[in-house]
What we know:
This protein has helices at residues 3-10, 26-36, 41-60, 106-112; strands at 65-67, 71-78, 81-84, 91-94, 97-104. Helix 2 packs across helix 3. Among the domains are: 24-63; 64-78 and 95-113, no CATH class. It has 113 residues and is α+β, with helices and mostly antiparallel strands. It is elongated and about 55 Å long.
Amino acid sequence: xxxxxxxxxLQGFYYSINLNLKKMNKAQLIEAMAKDAKLxxxxxxxxxEAFVTSTTKALGKGDRVxxxxxxxxxxxxxxxxxxxxxxxxKAIKIAAKKVVKFKAGAELTKKxx
Length: 113
């Protein structure tokens, strides 16, 4: 039991938290893609880089990238707003900006559950 889970159980929280989340880095993703598609790692790397480049260009133009069953990437505008500096408490202006959003598709959501 970790310190966090012990602290939460003392506070009356009765659910467990998974603190051992595994991460897949770019090299591991390339290796998995190459293995699944029966490609070399170099070909897998080029495929991933092509996907990232194409998706970035499309989003830069304001397009939506949809992969049926997997999900969709889109650009959303975030309005300017007032915020607070957490150190000083002083009000600050936060500029408007565009942000990338990802919405998981039905098949992906179903497989993750």
